[in-house]
Amino acid sequence: MTGAGREPVRAANGRLELDPDRVGRDLVCLVLTVVELLRQLMERQALHRCDQGDVTDEQIERIGTTLMLLDERMDELCAQHGLTRDELNLDLGPLGTLLER
Amino acid sequence: MTQTVDEPGPHQRRGQGGAAATATYVFAVCRDGDPAAVAGLPGQAPGAPVRLLRFGSLEAVVQDVPAAEFGQEALRERLTDRTELERCARAHHAVIAAVAAGAPTVPLPLATLYLGDERVRAALREDERRFHAVLERIAGRVEWGVKVYARRETTGGPGRSATVAPARTPAGAPEGPSAAGAAHAATPGAARSVGRSGRAYLERVRGARQERERRQQAGLDAAEAVDRALRGVAVASRRLRTHDTALTGERGTQLLNAAYLVAEGREREVAEAVEEVRSAPACQGVEVEVTGPWVPYSFVDGGGLDARG
Protein backbone atom coordinates (compact mmCIF):
# COMPACT_ATOMS: atom_id res chain seq x y z
CA MET A 1 0.00 0.00 0.00
CA THR A 2 2.83 2.37 -0.72
CA GLY A 3 2.60 5.14 -3.24
CA ALA A 4 4.39 4.41 -6.44
CA GLY A 5 7.65 6.15 -7.05
CA ARG A 6 8.72 6.13 -3.44
CA GLU A 7 11.63 4.03 -2.34
CA PRO A 8 10.58 2.17 0.80
CA VAL A 9 12.82 2.62 3.80
CA ARG A 10 15.26 -0.23 3.88
CA ALA A 11 17.48 -1.49 6.61
CA ALA A 12 21.07 -2.44 5.92
CA ASN A 13 20.14 -6.01 5.06
CA GLY A 14 17.69 -4.85 2.41
CA ARG A 15 14.56 -5.94 4.23
CA LEU A 16 11.49 -3.78 4.51
CA GLU A 17 11.31 -1.80 7.68
CA LEU A 18 7.87 -1.68 9.27
CA ASP A 19 7.79 1.17 11.73
CA PRO A 20 4.64 2.81 13.13
CA ASP A 21 5.46 6.26 11.70
CA ARG A 22 5.74 4.82 8.30
CA VAL A 23 2.44 2.98 8.55
CA GLY A 24 0.79 6.25 9.61
CA ARG A 25 2.30 8.07 6.67
CA ASP A 26 1.12 5.37 4.30
CA LEU A 27 -2.39 5.73 5.66
CA VAL A 28 -2.32 9.48 5.10
CA CYS A 29 -1.00 8.84 1.61
CA LEU A 30 -3.87 6.44 0.90
CA VAL A 31 -6.51 8.83 2.20
CA LEU A 32 -5.11 11.73 0.19
CA THR A 33 -4.94 9.50 -2.87
CA VAL A 34 -8.65 8.79 -2.59
CA VAL A 35 -9.40 12.48 -2.08
CA GLU A 36 -7.27 13.34 -5.09
CA LEU A 37 -9.12 10.74 -7.15
CA LEU A 38 -12.44 12.35 -6.26
CA ARG A 39 -11.04 15.82 -6.99
CA GLN A 40 -9.88 14.74 -10.42
CA LEU A 41 -13.23 13.10 -11.14
CA MET A 42 -14.94 16.36 -10.23
CA GLU A 43 -12.63 18.25 -12.55
CA ARG A 44 -13.42 15.89 -15.34
CA GLN A 45 -17.12 16.21 -14.69
CA ALA A 46 -16.82 19.99 -14.64
CA LEU A 47 -15.07 20.05 -18.01
CA HIS A 48 -17.71 17.75 -19.37
CA ARG A 49 -20.50 20.02 -18.15
CA CYS A 50 -18.79 23.07 -19.64
CA ASP A 51 -18.50 21.31 -22.98
CA GLN A 52 -22.17 20.51 -22.93
CA GLY A 53 -22.90 24.17 -22.39
CA ASP A 54 -25.55 23.68 -19.75
CA VAL A 55 -23.86 25.86 -17.15
CA THR A 56 -23.73 29.61 -17.07
CA ASP A 57 -20.53 31.64 -17.21
CA GLU A 58 -21.01 32.48 -13.60
CA GLN A 59 -21.31 28.84 -12.66
CA ILE A 60 -18.21 27.94 -14.66
CA GLU A 61 -16.26 30.61 -12.86
CA ARG A 62 -17.42 29.39 -9.49
CA ILE A 63 -16.78 25.70 -10.21
CA GLY A 64 -13.34 26.54 -11.59
CA THR A 65 -12.40 28.61 -8.59
CA THR A 66 -13.53 25.91 -6.18
CA LEU A 67 -11.54 23.25 -7.99
CA MET A 68 -8.51 25.51 -8.12
CA LEU A 69 -8.67 26.07 -4.38
CA LEU A 70 -9.08 22.34 -3.79
CA ASP A 71 -5.99 21.77 -5.92
CA GLU A 72 -4.01 24.23 -3.85
CA ARG A 73 -5.33 22.70 -0.66
CA MET A 74 -4.05 19.31 -1.81
CA ASP A 75 -0.59 20.81 -2.26
CA GLU A 76 -0.71 22.15 1.26
CA LEU A 77 -1.90 18.87 2.75
CA CYS A 78 0.82 16.99 0.92
CA ALA A 79 3.46 19.43 2.13
CA GLN A 80 2.21 19.08 5.69
CA HIS A 81 2.66 15.33 5.56
CA GLY A 82 5.91 15.34 3.66
CA LEU A 83 4.38 13.87 0.53
CA THR A 84 4.55 15.00 -3.06
CA ARG A 85 1.63 14.97 -5.46
CA ASP A 86 3.35 12.28 -7.51
CA GLU A 87 3.27 9.95 -4.53
CA LEU A 88 -0.50 10.04 -4.38
CA ASN A 89 -1.18 7.00 -6.45
CA LEU A 90 -1.76 3.29 -6.28
CA ASP A 91 -0.16 0.73 -8.49
CA LEU A 92 -2.95 -1.53 -9.71
CA GLY A 93 -0.56 -3.98 -11.34
CA PRO A 94 -1.50 -4.84 -14.90
CA LEU A 95 -4.29 -2.25 -14.79
CA GLY A 96 -1.77 0.55 -14.43
CA THR A 97 -2.13 3.21 -11.79
CA LEU A 98 -5.25 4.55 -10.09
CA LEU A 99 -4.53 8.14 -11.05
CA GLU A 100 -3.28 9.19 -14.44
CA ARG A 101 0.31 10.12 -14.51
CA MET B 1 2.09 -31.36 -20.91
CA THR B 2 3.62 -31.80 -17.51
CA GLN B 3 5.60 -28.89 -16.29
CA THR B 4 7.25 -30.38 -13.28
CA VAL B 5 10.24 -28.12 -13.35
CA ASP B 6 8.51 -24.92 -14.32
CA GLU B 7 7.44 -24.25 -10.80
CA PRO B 8 10.59 -23.17 -9.09
CA GLY B 9 11.15 -23.59 -5.48
CA PRO B 10 11.50 -25.90 -2.62
CA HIS B 11 7.99 -27.27 -2.65
CA GLN B 12 9.37 -29.92 -4.97
CA ARG B 13 10.99 -31.34 -1.90
CA ARG B 14 7.65 -32.15 -0.34
CA GLY B 15 7.15 -35.51 1.26
CA GLN B 16 10.41 -35.67 3.12
CA GLY B 17 11.57 -33.87 6.17
CA GLY B 18 14.90 -32.68 4.86
CA ALA B 19 16.79 -35.77 6.00
CA ALA B 20 19.26 -35.40 3.13
CA ALA B 21 22.32 -33.34 3.89
CA THR B 22 22.55 -32.13 0.32
CA ALA B 23 20.00 -31.20 -2.28
CA THR B 24 20.55 -30.97 -6.02
CA TYR B 25 20.22 -27.52 -7.53
CA VAL B 26 19.43 -27.53 -11.25
CA PHE B 27 20.55 -24.55 -13.34
CA ALA B 28 19.66 -25.63 -16.83
CA VAL B 29 19.12 -28.42 -19.31
CA CYS B 30 21.42 -28.69 -22.30
CA ARG B 31 22.37 -30.93 -25.18
CA ASP B 32 26.00 -32.08 -25.45
CA GLY B 33 27.24 -29.60 -22.89
CA ASP B 34 30.92 -29.19 -22.11
CA PRO B 35 31.70 -30.20 -18.49
CA ALA B 36 34.84 -28.08 -18.56
CA ALA B 37 32.81 -24.95 -19.25
CA VAL B 38 31.18 -25.01 -15.83
CA ALA B 39 33.65 -26.97 -13.72
CA GLY B 40 35.38 -23.97 -12.21
CA LEU B 41 32.29 -21.89 -11.46
CA PRO B 42 31.21 -21.20 -7.87
CA GLY B 43 27.51 -21.69 -8.63
CA GLN B 44 25.18 -21.46 -5.65
CA ALA B 45 27.41 -23.25 -3.14
CA PRO B 46 31.12 -22.57 -3.49
CA GLY B 47 33.02 -25.76 -2.77
CA ALA B 48 30.87 -28.25 -4.62
CA PRO B 49 31.57 -28.46 -8.35
CA VAL B 50 28.99 -27.53 -10.95
CA ARG B 51 28.58 -30.65 -13.08
CA LEU B 52 26.55 -32.20 -15.85
CA LEU B 53 24.03 -34.90 -15.00
CA ARG B 54 22.94 -37.10 -17.86
CA PHE B 55 19.23 -37.96 -18.18
CA GLY B 56 17.95 -39.65 -21.31
CA SER B 57 19.50 -37.92 -24.28
CA LEU B 58 20.06 -34.61 -22.49
CA GLU B 59 22.05 -33.26 -19.59
CA ALA B 60 21.10 -31.24 -16.58
CA VAL B 61 23.55 -28.71 -15.19
CA VAL B 62 23.52 -29.33 -11.46
CA GLN B 63 25.30 -28.69 -8.21
CA ASP B 64 25.08 -30.24 -4.75
CA VAL B 65 23.98 -27.64 -2.26
CA PRO B 66 23.55 -27.90 1.52
CA ALA B 67 19.93 -28.86 2.12
CA ALA B 68 19.78 -26.74 5.25
CA GLU B 69 20.54 -23.56 3.31
CA PHE B 70 18.06 -24.36 0.57
CA GLY B 71 15.12 -25.54 2.62
CA GLN B 72 11.75 -23.88 2.19
CA GLU B 73 12.16 -21.42 5.05
CA ALA B 74 15.81 -20.68 4.41
CA LEU B 75 15.16 -20.02 0.75
CA ARG B 76 12.23 -17.73 1.34
CA GLU B 77 14.34 -15.81 3.81
CA ARG B 78 17.20 -15.45 1.36
CA LEU B 79 15.21 -14.61 -1.71
CA THR B 80 13.32 -11.79 -0.04
CA ASP B 81 16.66 -10.18 0.76
CA ARG B 82 17.47 -8.08 -2.27
CA THR B 83 21.22 -8.36 -1.95
CA GLU B 84 21.06 -12.10 -1.54
CA LEU B 85 18.53 -12.42 -4.35
CA GLU B 86 20.87 -10.55 -6.65
CA ARG B 87 23.79 -12.74 -5.67
CA CYS B 88 21.75 -15.91 -6.32
CA ALA B 89 20.45 -14.60 -9.63
CA ARG B 90 23.93 -13.62 -10.81
CA ALA B 91 25.39 -16.98 -9.82
CA HIS B 92 22.50 -18.71 -11.59
CA HIS B 93 23.02 -16.63 -14.70
CA ALA B 94 26.81 -17.09 -14.70
CA VAL B 95 26.44 -20.86 -14.90
CA ILE B 96 23.74 -20.69 -17.57
CA ALA B 97 25.73 -18.26 -19.68
CA ALA B 98 28.83 -20.47 -19.42
CA VAL B 99 26.98 -23.59 -20.61
CA ALA B 100 25.05 -21.73 -23.27
CA ALA B 101 28.27 -20.44 -24.81
CA GLY B 102 29.00 -23.96 -26.01
CA ALA B 103 25.69 -25.80 -26.30
CA PRO B 104 21.98 -25.09 -26.76
CA THR B 105 20.68 -24.53 -23.27
CA VAL B 106 17.28 -24.25 -21.59
CA PRO B 107 17.61 -22.16 -18.44
CA LEU B 108 15.52 -23.36 -15.51
CA PRO B 109 13.94 -20.98 -13.01
CA LEU B 110 15.99 -19.69 -10.13
CA ALA B 111 16.02 -22.08 -7.18
CA THR B 112 14.94 -25.25 -8.93
CA LEU B 113 15.79 -27.90 -6.35
CA TYR B 114 15.45 -31.64 -5.97
CA LEU B 115 16.30 -34.00 -3.16
CA GLY B 116 19.00 -35.77 -5.10
CA ASP B 117 20.31 -36.74 -8.52
CA GLU B 118 17.81 -39.55 -8.91
CA ARG B 119 14.91 -37.21 -8.31
CA VAL B 120 16.33 -34.82 -10.89
CA ARG B 121 16.55 -37.58 -13.48
CA ALA B 122 13.05 -38.82 -12.78
CA ALA B 123 11.50 -35.38 -12.95
CA LEU B 124 13.35 -34.10 -15.99
CA ARG B 125 12.85 -37.30 -17.98
CA GLU B 126 9.13 -36.73 -17.82
CA ASP B 127 9.69 -33.49 -19.65
CA GLU B 128 12.32 -34.70 -22.05
CA ARG B 129 10.17 -34.17 -25.13
CA ARG B 130 9.32 -30.68 -24.12
CA PHE B 131 12.99 -29.89 -23.54
CA HIS B 132 13.82 -31.19 -27.00
CA ALA B 133 11.14 -28.99 -28.52
CA VAL B 134 12.44 -25.93 -26.70
CA LEU B 135 16.05 -26.70 -27.63
CA GLU B 136 14.96 -27.02 -31.22
CA ARG B 137 13.42 -23.57 -31.05
CA ILE B 138 16.27 -21.75 -29.34
CA ALA B 139 19.31 -23.52 -30.78
CA GLY B 140 21.47 -21.02 -32.65
CA ARG B 141 19.34 -18.15 -31.41
CA VAL B 142 19.75 -15.52 -28.76
CA GLU B 143 17.46 -13.17 -26.94
CA TRP B 144 17.59 -9.40 -27.15
CA GLY B 145 15.79 -7.32 -24.61
CA VAL B 146 14.32 -4.00 -25.66
CA LYS B 147 12.83 -1.49 -23.28
CA VAL B 148 11.26 1.79 -24.23
CA TYR B 149 10.95 4.61 -21.72
CA ALA B 150 9.06 7.86 -22.02
CA ARG B 151 11.51 10.71 -21.59
CA ARG B 152 10.79 12.45 -18.38
CA GLU B 153 9.19 15.79 -19.00
CA THR B 154 8.71 18.39 -16.37
CA THR B 155 5.08 17.91 -15.58
CA GLY B 156 3.16 20.35 -13.50
CA GLY B 157 -0.41 20.31 -12.42
CA PRO B 158 -2.81 22.75 -13.99
CA GLY B 159 -2.44 25.09 -11.04
CA ARG B 160 1.27 25.31 -11.55
CA SER B 161 1.26 25.80 -15.27
CA ALA B 162 2.72 29.10 -16.33
CA THR B 163 0.78 29.32 -19.57
CA VAL B 164 -2.08 31.70 -19.30
CA ALA B 165 -5.18 30.35 -20.90
CA PRO B 166 -7.18 32.80 -22.98
CA ALA B 167 -9.59 33.78 -20.29
CA ARG B 168 -12.42 36.00 -21.16
CA THR B 169 -13.48 37.40 -17.86
CA PRO B 170 -17.08 38.41 -17.89
CA ALA B 171 -17.82 41.73 -16.33
CA GLY B 172 -18.60 41.39 -12.68
CA ALA B 173 -17.22 37.88 -12.38
CA PRO B 174 -17.80 36.44 -8.96
CA GLU B 175 -14.79 36.25 -6.73
CA GLY B 176 -15.42 32.72 -5.65
CA PRO B 177 -15.54 31.66 -2.02
CA SER B 178 -14.36 34.91 -0.58
CA ALA B 179 -12.87 33.73 2.67
CA ALA B 180 -10.69 31.09 1.04
CA GLY B 181 -9.88 33.44 -1.80
CA ALA B 182 -8.59 36.06 0.58
CA ALA B 183 -6.52 33.50 2.42
CA HIS B 184 -4.86 32.45 -0.80
CA ALA B 185 -4.44 35.85 -2.32
CA ALA B 186 -1.38 36.38 -0.19
CA THR B 187 0.29 33.15 -1.33
CA PRO B 188 3.67 34.03 -2.77
CA GLY B 189 4.94 32.64 -6.07
CA ALA B 190 4.53 34.01 -9.55
CA ALA B 191 2.70 30.95 -10.88
CA ARG B 192 -0.06 31.41 -8.36
CA SER B 193 -0.79 34.95 -9.27
CA VAL B 194 -1.28 33.96 -12.89
CA GLY B 195 -4.86 33.41 -13.98
CA ARG B 196 -6.72 33.45 -10.72
CA SER B 197 -10.02 33.10 -12.48
CA GLY B 198 -11.92 29.86 -12.19
CA ARG B 199 -12.52 29.69 -15.90
CA ALA B 200 -8.83 30.09 -16.63
CA TYR B 201 -8.10 27.28 -14.21
CA LEU B 202 -10.53 24.96 -15.98
CA GLU B 203 -8.93 25.84 -19.30
CA ARG B 204 -5.52 24.94 -17.91
CA VAL B 205 -6.90 21.63 -16.62
CA ARG B 206 -8.29 20.95 -20.07
CA GLY B 207 -4.99 21.83 -21.70
CA ALA B 208 -3.06 19.58 -19.34
CA ARG B 209 -5.44 16.69 -19.98
CA GLN B 210 -5.14 17.05 -23.73
CA GLU B 211 -1.38 17.30 -23.46
CA ARG B 212 -1.25 14.14 -21.34
CA GLU B 213 -3.46 12.26 -23.76
CA ARG B 214 -1.30 13.38 -26.65
CA ARG B 215 1.83 12.27 -24.81
CA GLN B 216 0.36 8.89 -23.91
CA GLN B 217 -0.70 8.27 -27.47
CA ALA B 218 2.74 9.32 -28.72
CA GLY B 219 4.34 6.94 -26.23
CA LEU B 220 2.21 4.02 -27.37
CA ASP B 221 2.89 4.82 -31.01
CA ALA B 222 6.62 4.89 -30.31
CA ALA B 223 6.48 1.56 -28.48
CA GLU B 224 4.59 0.04 -31.41
CA ALA B 225 7.14 1.41 -33.88
CA VAL B 226 10.02 -0.08 -31.92
CA ASP B 227 8.25 -3.42 -31.58
CA ARG B 228 7.48 -3.52 -35.30
CA ALA B 229 11.08 -2.77 -36.23
CA LEU B 230 12.51 -5.46 -33.97
CA ARG B 231 9.94 -8.06 -34.99
CA GLY B 232 11.24 -7.63 -38.49
CA VAL B 233 14.58 -9.05 -37.38
CA ALA B 234 13.29 -11.58 -34.88
CA VAL B 235 12.09 -15.15 -35.20
CA ALA B 236 9.73 -14.69 -32.28
CA SER B 237 8.87 -11.97 -29.83
CA ARG B 238 7.30 -11.61 -26.44
CA ARG B 239 5.85 -8.64 -24.69
CA LEU B 240 6.68 -8.77 -21.00
CA ARG B 241 4.97 -6.88 -18.26
CA THR B 242 6.36 -3.39 -17.98
CA HIS B 243 8.23 -2.50 -14.84
CA ASP B 244 6.74 -0.28 -12.23
CA THR B 245 8.00 3.29 -12.13
CA ALA B 246 9.30 2.62 -8.62
CA LEU B 247 11.88 0.32 -10.18
CA THR B 248 12.63 2.30 -13.31
CA GLY B 249 13.41 5.31 -11.14
CA GLU B 250 14.59 8.38 -12.97
CA ARG B 251 14.06 6.86 -16.37
CA GLY B 252 10.43 7.70 -16.82
CA THR B 253 7.49 5.43 -17.48
CA GLN B 254 8.30 2.19 -19.19
CA LEU B 255 6.26 1.89 -22.37
CA LEU B 256 7.59 -1.36 -23.75
CA ASN B 257 9.38 -4.31 -22.22
CA ALA B 258 9.86 -6.90 -24.92
CA ALA B 259 12.12 -9.81 -25.75
CA TYR B 260 13.07 -10.89 -29.24
CA LEU B 261 14.42 -14.25 -30.31
CA VAL B 262 16.99 -13.57 -32.99
CA ALA B 263 19.34 -15.84 -34.93
CA GLU B 264 22.91 -15.75 -33.68
CA GLY B 265 25.21 -13.49 -35.63
CA ARG B 266 22.55 -10.94 -36.51
CA GLU B 267 23.79 -8.35 -34.04
CA ARG B 268 24.26 -5.90 -36.90
CA GLU B 269 20.67 -6.16 -38.02
CA VAL B 270 19.45 -5.67 -34.47
CA ALA B 271 21.68 -2.62 -34.04
CA GLU B 272 20.55 -1.21 -37.38
CA ALA B 273 16.88 -1.73 -36.62
CA VAL B 274 17.35 0.03 -33.30
CA GLU B 275 19.29 2.90 -34.84
CA GLU B 276 16.68 3.36 -37.51
CA VAL B 277 13.79 3.37 -35.10
CA ARG B 278 15.62 5.70 -32.71
CA SER B 279 15.84 8.32 -35.41
CA ALA B 280 12.23 7.84 -36.51
CA PRO B 281 10.00 10.84 -35.89
CA ALA B 282 7.59 8.75 -33.83
CA CYS B 283 10.33 7.92 -31.33
CA GLN B 284 11.69 11.34 -30.50
CA GLY B 285 10.02 11.44 -27.11
CA VAL B 286 11.28 8.07 -25.94
CA GLU B 287 14.46 6.30 -24.96
CA VAL B 288 15.16 2.88 -26.41
CA GLU B 289 17.32 0.57 -24.35
CA VAL B 290 18.70 -2.62 -25.81
CA THR B 291 20.36 -5.45 -23.91
CA GLY B 292 21.76 -8.70 -25.16
CA PRO B 293 22.56 -11.10 -26.48
CA TRP B 294 21.08 -13.22 -23.72
CA VAL B 295 20.39 -16.89 -23.31
CA PRO B 296 16.74 -17.03 -24.45
CA TYR B 297 15.23 -16.92 -20.98
CA SER B 298 11.94 -15.55 -22.24
CA PHE B 299 11.44 -18.25 -24.84
CA VAL B 300 11.70 -21.47 -22.87
CA ASP B 301 8.23 -21.96 -21.51
CA GLY B 302 6.43 -22.30 -24.78
CA GLY B 303 3.75 -19.73 -24.02
CA GLY B 304 3.18 -16.32 -25.49
CA LEU B 305 5.05 -16.84 -28.73
CA ASP B 306 4.21 -15.28 -32.01
CA ALA B 307 2.72 -17.46 -34.67
CA ARG B 308 6.03 -17.25 -36.44
CA GLY B 309 7.81 -18.76 -33.43
TrEMBL record, chain A:
Q: What is its main location?
A: other
Q: Which species? A: Streptomyces oryzae
What is this protein's name?
Gas vesicle protein K
InterPro entries in UniProt: GvpK
Q: Which UniProt keywords apply?
A: Gas vesicle
Q: Which family does it belong to?
A: Belongs to the gas vesicle GvpK family.
Q: Where in the cell is it found?
A: Gas vesicle
UniProtKB/TrEMBL annotation, chain B:
Compartments in which it is found: Gas vesicle
State the residue spans of region: Disordered.
Answer: 153-197
InterPro entries in UniProt: GvpL/GvpF
Entries under Pfam families matching the protein: GvpL_GvpF (PF06386)
Native species: Streptomyces oryzae
Query: Which key words tag this protein in UniProt?
Result: Gas vesicle
Q: Which family does it belong to?
A: Belongs to the gas vesicle GvpF/GvpL family.
Q: What is this protein called?
A: GvpL/GvpF family gas vesicle protein
Instruction: Specify residue ranges for compositional bias: Low complexity.
Output: 170-191
